[in-house]
What we know:
The protein has 143 residues and is mainly alpha-helical. It has helices at residues 5-8, 41-59, 64-71, 76-90, 106-121, 125-141. The protein contains 6 helices and no strands. The N and C termini lie far apart (36 Å).
Amino acid sequence: xxxxxxxxxxxxxxxxxxxxxxxxxxxxxxxxxxxxxxxxxxxxxxxxxxxxxxxxxxxxxxxxxxxxxxxxxxxxxxxxxxxxxxxxxxxxxxxxxxxxxxxxxxxxxxxxxxxxxxxxxxxxxxxxxxxxxxxxxxxxxxx
Length: 143
């Protein structure tokens, strides 16, 4: 079975490549025409946390629905399916106000990233379990 593109790129949330942003650990030049590639999964997950923090602080995305609508603006049906998947995995409500990223909210934000990676890459339970410690470590790399 072929590995998901996001996992091959060490970019489990499929962050789109940008000329404006030089992510720590990003592979340049990359071989993927659309998505950023990272040296390790930890760097890809760190970038995801940093991007979500920017969504929260700069763009006012304070709910799962607002985050997903900005992350993947494919249209209402796709967004709703994505929101439902993240909410099912995290136990959060789509329009529940999320707290800022702090040490006290680490578990919740790690769960959100895992749920988004599951949606983006179609992760099975074993893959999810393998990603959990990498997500927790990436949180500490955020700075």
